[in-house]
Amino acid sequence: MVSKTEETQVNRLENQVDNGGGGAWEYLCLVRKLKLRRSDKVLKHGLSILNDSTKRSTLGSEEWTLYEQVAIAAMDCQCLDVAKDCIKVLQKKFPGSKRVGRLEAMLLEAKGSWAEAEIAYSSLLEDNSMDQVIHKRRAAMAKAQGNLSGAIEGLNKYLEIFMADLDVWRELAEIYVSLQMYKQAAFCYEELILSQPTNPVYHLAYADVLYTLGGLENLQSAKKYYASVTDLTGGKNTRALFGICLCTFAIGQLTKGRNKEEKD
Amino acid sequence: MGGELRYQIGQNAYIKLILHALKHRSSAVNGVLLGRLSGGDSNPVVEIADSVPLFHSQIGLLPPLEIALIQIEEYYGAQGLSIVGYFHANERFDDSELGNVAKNIGDHIHRYFSQAGLLLLDNKKLEALSKGKDRSPVIQLYTRDSSKSWKLIGDGSSRLTMKEPAANIVLLDYISNKKWQDIVDFDDHLDDISKDWLNPELFSS
Q: Which residues of A touch B91 (CB under 8 A)?
Protein backbone atom coordinates (compact mmCIF):
# COMPACT_ATOMS: atom_id res chain seq x y z
CA MET A 1 0.00 0.00 0.00
CA VAL A 2 1.20 3.50 -0.82
CA SER A 3 1.32 6.00 2.02
CA LYS A 4 0.32 9.64 1.70
CA THR A 5 3.91 10.90 1.89
CA GLU A 6 5.06 8.47 -0.78
CA GLU A 7 2.21 9.57 -3.00
CA THR A 8 3.04 13.26 -2.68
CA GLN A 9 6.69 12.44 -3.29
CA VAL A 10 5.94 10.56 -6.49
CA ASN A 11 3.52 13.24 -7.68
CA ARG A 12 6.06 15.97 -7.08
CA LEU A 13 8.72 14.04 -8.95
CA GLU A 14 6.33 13.32 -11.81
CA ASN A 15 5.54 17.01 -12.10
CA GLN A 16 9.21 17.87 -12.13
CA VAL A 17 10.02 15.32 -14.84
CA ASP A 18 7.00 16.34 -16.92
CA ASN A 19 8.23 19.92 -16.95
CA GLY A 20 11.73 18.95 -18.03
CA GLY A 21 13.27 19.33 -14.58
CA GLY A 22 15.22 16.07 -14.70
CA GLY A 23 15.08 13.16 -12.28
CA ALA A 24 13.48 10.77 -14.76
CA TRP A 25 15.48 7.77 -13.53
CA GLU A 26 14.62 8.48 -9.86
CA TYR A 27 10.98 8.75 -10.86
CA LEU A 28 11.03 5.44 -12.71
CA CYS A 29 12.73 3.72 -9.76
CA LEU A 30 10.11 5.06 -7.39
CA VAL A 31 7.24 3.95 -9.60
CA ARG A 32 8.79 0.50 -9.70
CA LYS A 33 9.36 0.38 -5.96
CA LEU A 34 5.81 1.42 -5.13
CA LYS A 35 4.38 -0.82 -7.88
CA LEU A 36 2.32 2.03 -9.35
CA ARG A 37 0.52 1.82 -12.65
CA ARG A 38 1.46 5.00 -14.51
CA SER A 39 2.19 3.39 -17.80
CA ASP A 40 1.90 6.44 -20.06
CA LYS A 41 4.46 8.37 -18.00
CA VAL A 42 6.80 5.39 -17.64
CA LEU A 43 6.68 4.84 -21.36
CA LYS A 44 7.40 8.47 -22.19
CA HIS A 45 10.20 9.08 -19.71
CA GLY A 46 11.65 5.58 -19.93
CA LEU A 47 11.97 5.88 -23.69
CA SER A 48 13.65 9.27 -23.37
CA ILE A 49 16.43 7.56 -21.41
CA LEU A 50 16.61 4.45 -23.60
CA ASN A 51 16.82 6.49 -26.79
CA ASP A 52 19.74 8.53 -25.46
CA SER A 53 22.88 6.38 -25.50
CA THR A 54 24.85 8.55 -23.05
CA LYS A 55 22.04 8.55 -20.49
CA ARG A 56 21.53 4.85 -21.03
CA SER A 57 25.16 3.94 -20.47
CA THR A 58 25.24 5.68 -17.08
CA LEU A 59 22.71 3.17 -15.78
CA GLY A 60 25.12 0.25 -15.98
CA SER A 61 23.39 -3.08 -15.40
CA GLU A 62 20.19 -1.27 -14.41
CA GLU A 63 19.70 -0.64 -18.12
CA TRP A 64 18.07 -4.06 -18.50
CA THR A 65 15.66 -3.42 -15.65
CA LEU A 66 14.54 -0.30 -17.48
CA TYR A 67 14.02 -2.21 -20.72
CA GLU A 68 11.74 -4.58 -18.83
CA GLN A 69 9.83 -1.77 -17.15
CA VAL A 70 9.30 0.10 -20.41
CA ALA A 71 8.25 -3.09 -22.21
CA ILE A 72 5.49 -3.72 -19.68
CA ALA A 73 4.37 -0.08 -19.73
CA ALA A 74 4.29 -0.13 -23.53
CA MET A 75 2.07 -3.21 -23.51
CA ASP A 76 -0.31 -1.44 -21.14
CA CYS A 77 -0.48 1.51 -23.56
CA GLN A 78 -0.96 -0.78 -26.55
CA CYS A 79 2.35 0.44 -28.08
CA LEU A 80 3.17 -3.10 -29.08
CA ASP A 81 6.02 -2.15 -31.42
CA VAL A 82 7.92 -0.46 -28.61
CA ALA A 83 7.33 -3.46 -26.36
CA LYS A 84 8.56 -5.78 -29.09
CA ASP A 85 11.76 -3.78 -29.56
CA CYS A 86 12.51 -3.78 -25.83
CA ILE A 87 11.93 -7.51 -25.58
CA LYS A 88 14.20 -8.12 -28.58
CA VAL A 89 17.06 -6.27 -26.87
CA LEU A 90 16.54 -8.36 -23.75
CA GLN A 91 16.39 -11.60 -25.74
CA LYS A 92 19.73 -10.79 -27.29
CA LYS A 93 21.30 -10.03 -23.92
CA PHE A 94 19.75 -12.94 -22.03
CA PRO A 95 19.08 -15.79 -24.44
CA GLY A 96 16.87 -18.52 -22.99
CA SER A 97 15.93 -16.47 -19.91
CA LYS A 98 12.65 -17.37 -18.23
CA ARG A 99 12.05 -13.80 -17.21
CA VAL A 100 12.27 -12.69 -20.83
CA GLY A 101 10.08 -15.64 -21.77
CA ARG A 102 7.44 -14.25 -19.44
CA LEU A 103 7.58 -10.93 -21.28
CA GLU A 104 7.15 -12.69 -24.62
CA ALA A 105 4.07 -14.45 -23.30
CA MET A 106 2.73 -11.15 -21.99
CA LEU A 107 3.19 -9.63 -25.43
CA LEU A 108 1.03 -12.38 -26.91
CA GLU A 109 -1.52 -11.60 -24.24
CA ALA A 110 -1.42 -7.88 -25.05
CA LYS A 111 -2.10 -8.70 -28.69
CA GLY A 112 -5.14 -10.67 -27.62
CA SER A 113 -3.71 -13.98 -28.87
CA TRP A 114 -5.13 -15.75 -25.85
CA ALA A 115 -4.55 -19.32 -27.00
CA GLU A 116 -0.89 -18.72 -27.88
CA ALA A 117 -0.30 -16.88 -24.62
CA GLU A 118 -1.87 -19.76 -22.71
CA ILE A 119 0.51 -22.23 -24.42
CA ALA A 120 3.49 -20.00 -23.63
CA TYR A 121 2.50 -19.71 -19.97
CA SER A 122 1.88 -23.45 -19.67
CA SER A 123 5.31 -24.29 -21.02
CA LEU A 124 6.89 -21.81 -18.61
CA LEU A 125 4.99 -23.44 -15.75
CA GLU A 126 6.30 -26.85 -16.75
CA ASP A 127 9.79 -25.59 -16.02
CA ASN A 128 8.80 -23.92 -12.78
CA SER A 129 5.36 -24.75 -11.45
CA MET A 130 5.85 -22.39 -8.48
CA ASP A 131 6.14 -19.20 -10.55
CA GLN A 132 3.66 -16.93 -8.79
CA VAL A 133 3.62 -14.25 -11.46
CA ILE A 134 2.60 -16.70 -14.16
CA HIS A 135 -0.22 -18.12 -12.05
CA LYS A 136 -1.48 -14.59 -11.54
CA ARG A 137 -1.13 -13.74 -15.24
CA ARG A 138 -3.29 -16.71 -16.13
CA ALA A 139 -6.02 -15.58 -13.77
CA ALA A 140 -5.75 -12.05 -15.15
CA MET A 141 -6.05 -13.44 -18.65
CA ALA A 142 -9.27 -15.22 -17.77
CA LYS A 143 -10.57 -11.97 -16.33
CA ALA A 144 -9.57 -10.03 -19.43
CA GLN A 145 -11.66 -12.38 -21.52
CA GLY A 146 -14.66 -11.88 -19.27
CA ASN A 147 -14.34 -15.38 -17.85
CA LEU A 148 -14.78 -14.44 -14.20
CA SER A 149 -15.56 -17.97 -13.02
CA GLY A 150 -12.30 -19.09 -14.61
CA ALA A 151 -10.45 -16.31 -12.81
CA ILE A 152 -12.07 -17.30 -9.51
CA GLU A 153 -11.07 -20.92 -10.02
CA GLY A 154 -7.50 -19.95 -10.83
CA LEU A 155 -7.17 -17.65 -7.85
CA ASN A 156 -8.63 -20.23 -5.48
CA LYS A 157 -6.14 -22.84 -6.70
CA TYR A 158 -3.36 -20.31 -6.31
CA LEU A 159 -4.44 -19.51 -2.75
CA GLU A 160 -4.34 -23.19 -1.81
CA ILE A 161 -0.58 -23.02 -2.40
CA PHE A 162 0.24 -19.38 -1.58
CA MET A 163 -2.12 -18.72 1.29
CA ALA A 164 -0.24 -15.66 2.53
CA ASP A 165 -0.62 -13.63 -0.68
CA LEU A 166 -2.88 -10.86 0.58
CA ASP A 167 -3.20 -9.05 -2.76
CA VAL A 168 -4.71 -12.16 -4.28
CA TRP A 169 -7.23 -12.53 -1.46
CA ARG A 170 -8.19 -8.96 -2.10
CA GLU A 171 -8.49 -9.42 -5.85
CA LEU A 172 -10.66 -12.48 -5.26
CA ALA A 173 -12.87 -10.52 -2.87
CA GLU A 174 -13.33 -7.77 -5.44
CA ILE A 175 -14.31 -10.23 -8.16
CA TYR A 176 -16.86 -11.78 -5.78
CA VAL A 177 -18.30 -8.36 -5.02
CA SER A 178 -18.60 -7.53 -8.71
CA LEU A 179 -20.58 -10.76 -9.13
CA GLN A 180 -22.64 -9.91 -6.05
CA MET A 181 -21.40 -13.05 -4.28
CA TYR A 182 -21.16 -11.22 -0.97
CA LYS A 183 -20.87 -14.23 1.33
CA GLN A 184 -17.78 -15.42 -0.50
CA ALA A 185 -16.35 -11.91 -0.51
CA ALA A 186 -16.92 -11.69 3.26
CA PHE A 187 -14.90 -14.87 3.71
CA CYS A 188 -11.95 -13.35 1.82
CA TYR A 189 -12.03 -10.23 3.95
CA GLU A 190 -12.14 -12.38 7.10
CA GLU A 191 -8.90 -14.00 5.94
CA LEU A 192 -7.39 -10.57 5.31
CA ILE A 193 -8.39 -9.27 8.73
CA LEU A 194 -6.86 -12.36 10.37
CA SER A 195 -3.56 -11.75 8.56
CA GLN A 196 -3.44 -8.03 9.23
CA PRO A 197 -5.71 -7.26 12.19
CA THR A 198 -4.65 -3.63 12.44
CA ASN A 199 -5.18 -2.65 8.81
CA PRO A 200 -8.34 -0.50 8.70
CA VAL A 201 -8.79 -1.02 4.94
CA TYR A 202 -9.85 -4.62 5.43
CA HIS A 203 -12.13 -3.84 8.36
CA LEU A 204 -13.86 -1.21 6.24
CA ALA A 205 -14.31 -3.48 3.24
CA TYR A 206 -15.64 -6.25 5.48
CA ALA A 207 -18.13 -3.88 7.10
CA ASP A 208 -19.29 -2.70 3.66
CA VAL A 209 -19.88 -6.29 2.55
CA LEU A 210 -21.77 -7.13 5.76
CA TYR A 211 -23.99 -4.07 5.34
CA THR A 212 -24.69 -5.05 1.75
CA LEU A 213 -25.67 -8.54 2.89
CA GLY A 214 -28.16 -7.00 5.31
CA GLY A 215 -30.14 -8.60 8.13
CA LEU A 216 -29.99 -7.59 11.78
CA GLU A 217 -27.02 -9.72 12.75
CA ASN A 218 -24.87 -8.58 9.81
CA LEU A 219 -25.81 -4.96 10.39
CA GLN A 220 -24.78 -5.18 14.01
CA SER A 221 -21.39 -6.66 13.17
CA ALA A 222 -20.96 -4.15 10.32
CA LYS A 223 -21.45 -1.38 12.84
CA LYS A 224 -18.78 -2.90 15.10
CA TYR A 225 -16.30 -3.09 12.23
CA TYR A 226 -17.02 0.50 11.20
CA ALA A 227 -16.38 1.43 14.82
CA SER A 228 -13.05 -0.40 14.75
CA VAL A 229 -12.07 1.49 11.58
CA THR A 230 -12.90 4.73 13.33
CA ASP A 231 -10.78 3.58 16.25
CA LEU A 232 -7.82 2.54 14.08
CA THR A 233 -7.82 5.74 12.03
CA GLY A 234 -8.48 8.13 14.90
CA GLY A 235 -11.86 9.09 13.43
CA LYS A 236 -10.35 10.27 10.16
CA ASN A 237 -12.15 7.82 7.89
CA THR A 238 -15.27 9.42 6.43
CA ARG A 239 -16.61 6.18 5.01
CA ALA A 240 -16.59 4.56 8.44
CA LEU A 241 -18.37 7.50 10.07
CA PHE A 242 -21.10 7.42 7.43
CA GLY A 243 -21.20 3.66 7.81
CA ILE A 244 -22.00 3.92 11.51
CA CYS A 245 -24.86 6.32 10.71
CA LEU A 246 -26.27 4.00 8.05
CA CYS A 247 -26.06 0.95 10.32
CA THR A 248 -27.67 2.74 13.24
CA PHE A 249 -30.53 3.88 11.03
CA ALA A 250 -31.01 0.47 9.41
CA ILE A 251 -30.92 -1.34 12.76
CA GLY A 252 -33.45 1.17 14.09
CA GLN A 253 -35.77 0.51 11.16
CA LEU A 254 -35.53 -3.26 11.62
CA THR A 255 -36.03 -3.33 15.36
CA LYS A 256 -38.84 -0.76 15.26
CA GLY A 257 -40.88 -3.08 13.07
CA ARG A 258 -40.07 -5.97 15.32
CA ASN A 259 -41.24 -4.23 18.51
CA LYS A 260 -44.52 -3.33 16.85
CA GLU A 261 -45.10 -6.94 15.86
CA GLU A 262 -44.53 -8.01 19.43
CA LYS A 263 -47.04 -5.48 20.67
CA ASP A 264 -49.63 -6.57 18.14
CA MET B 1 -52.17 7.12 -24.84
CA GLY B 2 -49.43 9.70 -25.14
CA GLY B 3 -46.40 9.77 -27.39
CA GLU B 4 -43.33 7.63 -26.92
CA LEU B 5 -41.13 8.62 -24.01
CA ARG B 6 -37.87 10.30 -25.07
CA TYR B 7 -34.69 11.15 -23.19
CA GLN B 8 -32.72 14.30 -23.75
CA ILE B 9 -29.29 14.73 -22.18
CA GLY B 10 -27.66 18.09 -21.52
CA GLN B 11 -24.11 18.78 -22.62
CA ASN B 12 -22.56 19.19 -19.17
CA ALA B 13 -24.27 16.10 -17.79
CA TYR B 14 -23.06 14.11 -20.78
CA ILE B 15 -19.46 15.34 -20.70
CA LYS B 16 -19.09 14.71 -16.97
CA LEU B 17 -20.11 11.07 -17.37
CA ILE B 18 -17.78 10.38 -20.29
CA LEU B 19 -14.79 12.15 -18.72
CA HIS B 20 -15.34 10.16 -15.55
CA ALA B 21 -15.18 6.92 -17.51
CA LEU B 22 -12.01 8.13 -19.25
CA LYS B 23 -10.32 9.01 -15.97
CA HIS B 24 -10.70 5.45 -14.71
CA ARG B 25 -10.00 3.52 -17.87
CA SER B 26 -9.14 0.26 -16.18
CA SER B 27 -12.17 -0.05 -13.94
CA ALA B 28 -15.93 0.03 -14.13
CA VAL B 29 -17.47 3.39 -13.24
CA ASN B 30 -21.00 4.62 -12.61
CA GLY B 31 -22.95 7.81 -12.15
CA VAL B 32 -26.41 9.12 -11.53
CA LEU B 33 -28.61 11.31 -13.77
CA LEU B 34 -30.58 14.28 -12.50
CA GLY B 35 -33.45 15.95 -14.25
CA ARG B 36 -37.20 16.15 -14.62
CA LEU B 37 -40.09 14.87 -16.68
CA SER B 38 -41.65 17.41 -19.02
CA GLY B 39 -43.69 17.74 -22.18
CA GLY B 40 -46.94 16.43 -20.69
CA ASP B 41 -48.76 13.36 -21.97
CA SER B 42 -48.55 14.16 -25.66
CA ASN B 43 -44.77 14.42 -25.91
CA PRO B 44 -43.14 13.17 -22.72
CA VAL B 45 -39.43 13.90 -22.36
CA VAL B 46 -37.06 13.02 -19.54
CA GLU B 47 -34.74 16.00 -19.47
CA ILE B 48 -31.36 15.03 -18.03
CA ALA B 49 -30.05 18.35 -16.79
CA ASP B 50 -27.10 17.24 -14.70
CA SER B 51 -25.14 14.19 -13.59
CA VAL B 52 -22.98 13.15 -10.67
CA PRO B 53 -20.06 10.75 -11.18
CA LEU B 54 -20.29 8.18 -8.40
CA PHE B 55 -17.70 5.41 -8.06
CA HIS B 56 -14.72 3.76 -9.70
CA SER B 57 -13.96 0.98 -7.25
CA GLN B 58 -16.11 -1.77 -5.79
CA ILE B 59 -19.34 -0.67 -7.45
CA GLY B 60 -21.23 -3.61 -6.01
CA LEU B 61 -21.22 -2.37 -2.42
CA LEU B 62 -24.25 -0.73 -0.88
CA PRO B 63 -23.09 1.72 1.84
CA PRO B 64 -21.25 4.26 -0.37
CA LEU B 65 -24.13 4.21 -2.85
CA GLU B 66 -26.72 4.89 -0.17
CA ILE B 67 -24.70 7.78 1.25
CA ALA B 68 -24.27 9.24 -2.23
CA LEU B 69 -27.94 8.94 -3.18
CA ILE B 70 -29.12 10.52 0.08
CA GLN B 71 -26.81 13.52 -0.36
CA ILE B 72 -27.51 13.92 -4.07
CA GLU B 73 -31.26 13.78 -3.57
CA GLU B 74 -31.05 16.34 -0.79
CA TYR B 75 -28.97 18.78 -2.85
CA TYR B 76 -30.81 18.54 -6.16
CA GLY B 77 -34.25 18.30 -4.58
CA ALA B 78 -33.86 21.91 -3.51
CA GLN B 79 -33.40 22.84 -7.19
CA GLY B 80 -36.45 20.91 -8.30
CA LEU B 81 -34.42 18.12 -9.90
CA SER B 82 -34.69 14.47 -9.03
CA ILE B 83 -32.83 11.26 -9.86
CA VAL B 84 -34.07 10.15 -13.28
CA GLY B 85 -31.59 7.47 -14.26
CA TYR B 86 -28.28 5.74 -13.94
CA PHE B 87 -25.09 5.61 -15.98
CA HIS B 88 -22.70 2.67 -16.14
CA ALA B 89 -19.41 1.98 -17.94
CA ASN B 90 -18.09 -1.56 -18.01
CA GLU B 91 -14.61 -2.57 -16.93
CA ARG B 92 -13.64 -4.26 -20.19
CA PHE B 93 -13.58 -2.58 -23.58
CA ASP B 94 -15.32 -5.40 -25.44
CA ASP B 95 -17.98 -5.94 -22.82
CA SER B 96 -21.20 -4.37 -24.06
CA GLU B 97 -23.59 -6.19 -21.75
CA LEU B 98 -25.52 -4.52 -18.99
CA GLY B 99 -24.35 -6.24 -15.79
CA ASN B 100 -26.43 -7.36 -12.83
CA VAL B 101 -25.14 -4.66 -10.51
CA ALA B 102 -26.22 -1.98 -12.97
CA LYS B 103 -29.63 -3.60 -13.37
CA ASN B 104 -30.14 -3.79 -9.61
CA ILE B 105 -29.28 -0.13 -9.12
CA GLY B 106 -31.56 0.70 -12.05
CA ASP B 107 -34.39 -1.28 -10.44
CA HIS B 108 -33.90 0.67 -7.25
CA ILE B 109 -34.11 4.03 -9.04
CA HIS B 110 -37.11 2.79 -11.03
CA ARG B 111 -39.00 2.28 -7.78
CA TYR B 112 -38.91 6.04 -7.16
CA PHE B 113 -39.07 7.28 -10.75
CA SER B 114 -40.88 4.90 -13.05
CA GLN B 115 -39.61 6.50 -16.28
CA ALA B 116 -35.98 5.99 -15.24
CA GLY B 117 -33.49 5.30 -18.00
CA LEU B 118 -30.30 3.29 -17.79
CA LEU B 119 -27.31 4.45 -19.83
CA LEU B 120 -24.37 2.24 -20.75
CA LEU B 121 -21.17 3.64 -22.24
CA ASP B 122 -20.62 2.43 -25.81
CA ASN B 123 -16.85 1.91 -25.93
CA LYS B 124 -16.71 1.35 -29.69
CA LYS B 125 -18.57 4.57 -30.43
CA LEU B 126 -16.37 6.45 -27.98
CA GLU B 127 -13.27 5.13 -29.71
CA ALA B 128 -14.61 6.10 -33.14
CA LEU B 129 -15.56 9.57 -31.95
CA SER B 130 -12.27 11.25 -32.84
CA LYS B 131 -12.41 9.86 -36.40
CA GLY B 132 -15.97 10.56 -37.34
CA LYS B 133 -18.50 13.34 -37.15
CA ASP B 134 -21.03 11.43 -35.12
CA ARG B 135 -23.34 13.79 -33.27
CA SER B 136 -25.28 11.19 -31.35
CA PRO B 137 -24.35 10.33 -27.74
CA VAL B 138 -21.75 7.58 -27.32
CA ILE B 139 -24.04 5.79 -24.91
CA GLN B 140 -26.72 3.17 -25.20
CA LEU B 141 -30.15 3.58 -23.66
CA TYR B 142 -31.95 0.85 -21.77
CA THR B 143 -35.49 1.18 -20.46
CA ARG B 144 -37.51 -1.09 -18.25
CA ASP B 145 -40.36 -2.80 -20.06
CA SER B 146 -43.56 -4.26 -18.68
CA SER B 147 -41.88 -7.62 -18.06
CA LYS B 148 -39.61 -5.84 -15.55
CA SER B 149 -36.44 -6.43 -17.51
CA TRP B 150 -34.12 -3.82 -18.98
CA LYS B 151 -34.24 -3.64 -22.75
CA LEU B 152 -31.78 -2.06 -25.15
CA ILE B 153 -33.29 0.66 -27.28
CA GLY B 154 -31.68 0.53 -30.71
CA ASP B 155 -29.63 3.40 -32.10
CA GLY B 156 -32.03 4.04 -34.93
CA SER B 157 -34.98 4.98 -32.76
CA SER B 158 -33.33 8.24 -31.52
CA ARG B 159 -35.11 7.98 -28.20
CA LEU B 160 -31.97 9.39 -26.60
CA THR B 161 -30.87 12.72 -27.99
CA MET B 162 -28.41 15.44 -27.15
CA LYS B 163 -29.77 18.79 -26.03
CA GLU B 164 -26.84 20.66 -27.57
CA PRO B 165 -25.99 19.21 -31.00
CA ALA B 166 -22.31 20.14 -30.73
CA ALA B 167 -21.75 18.27 -27.45
CA ASN B 168 -19.44 15.70 -29.02
CA ILE B 169 -17.21 18.43 -30.45
CA VAL B 170 -16.94 20.05 -27.03
CA LEU B 171 -16.26 16.63 -25.53
CA LEU B 172 -13.39 15.99 -27.96
CA ASP B 173 -11.94 19.34 -27.05
CA TYR B 174 -12.07 18.43 -23.35
CA ILE B 175 -10.47 15.06 -24.06
CA SER B 176 -7.56 16.60 -25.93
CA ASN B 177 -7.02 19.02 -23.04
CA LYS B 178 -6.91 16.05 -20.65
CA LYS B 179 -9.79 17.57 -18.74
CA TRP B 180 -10.65 14.13 -17.38
CA GLN B 181 -7.83 14.48 -14.86
CA ASP B 182 -9.81 17.11 -12.97
CA ILE B 183 -13.05 15.24 -12.49
CA VAL B 184 -14.01 14.35 -8.92
CA ASP B 185 -16.38 11.49 -8.16
CA PHE B 186 -18.07 10.40 -4.96
CA ASP B 187 -15.31 7.89 -4.23
CA ASP B 188 -12.77 10.72 -4.26
CA HIS B 189 -15.05 12.75 -2.02
CA LEU B 190 -15.32 9.96 0.54
CA ASP B 191 -11.53 9.53 0.58
CA ASP B 192 -10.93 13.25 0.92
CA ILE B 193 -13.95 15.24 1.94
CA SER B 194 -12.47 18.53 0.69
CA LYS B 195 -12.97 17.30 -2.89
CA ASP B 196 -16.36 18.40 -4.20
CA TRP B 197 -18.45 15.83 -6.10
CA LEU B 198 -20.38 18.67 -7.74
CA ASN B 199 -17.30 19.52 -9.83
CA PRO B 200 -18.04 23.26 -9.72
CA GLU B 201 -14.69 24.18 -11.31
CA LEU B 202 -14.83 21.75 -14.21
CA PHE B 203 -16.63 23.93 -16.74
CA SER B 204 -15.60 27.33 -15.43
CA SER B 205 -11.95 27.42 -16.48
A: 178
- Which of the 8 DSSP states describes residue A95? T
* pLDDT for res B42: 85
Residues facing residue B119 across a β-bridge: B87, B141
Of B61, B100, B190, the CB nearest to A212: B61
Q: How far is B95 from chain A (nearest CA, A)?
A: 8
pLDDT over 70 at B2, yes or no: no
* Interface probe, candidates A1, A78, A176, A178, chain B, greatest B C-beta count within 10 A: A178
Confidence of residue B1 (pLDDT cuts 50, 70, 90): very low
Nearest to A239 among B26, B64, B100 (CB): B64
Helix A238-263, helix B62-77: angle, nearest 10: 90
Please give the domain boundaries of chain B with CATH numbers for all domains: 6-191 (3.40.140.10)
Q: In this predicted model, what pLDDT tens digit does every residue of B140-155 receive, in sequence order?
A: 999 998 888 999 997 7
ipTM > 0.95, yes or no: no
Whole-model pTM: value is: 0.91
Work out the average pLDDT over B1-29. 90
For β-strands B6-9 and B160-162, DSSP reports them as parallel
Selected residues 210-239 of chain A with any CB under 8 Å from a CB in chain B: 211-212, 238-239
Nearest CA in chain B to A144: B92
Using the 8-state DSSP alphabet, how is residue B184 labeled? -
DSSP string of A98-167? HHHHHHHHHHHHHHT-HHHHHHHHHHHHHH-TT-HHHHHHHHHHHHHTT-HHHHHHHHHHHHHH-TT-HH
DSSP annotation of B154? P
* CATH architecture observed for domain A198-264: Alpha Horseshoe (1.25)
B74 touches chain A (CB under 8 A): no
Domain ranges of chain A: 1-93, 198-264
Mean pLDDT in residue range B18-25 = 95
Distance from CA of A28 to the nearest CA of B (A): 21
Q: Which of A174, A179, A246 sits opposite B67 (nearest CB)?
A: A246
CB-based contacts of B165, cutoff 8 Å, min separation 6: B135
The band of A230, judged by pLDDT with boundaries at 50, 70 and 90, is very high
A37 touches chain B (CB under 8 A): yes
In this complex, which of B62, B92, B94 lies closest to A212 when CB atoms are compared?
B62
A29-33, A76-80, B201-205: the lowest-pLDDT one: B201-205
- Minimal CA–CA distance to A250: which of A205, A220, A225, A229? A220
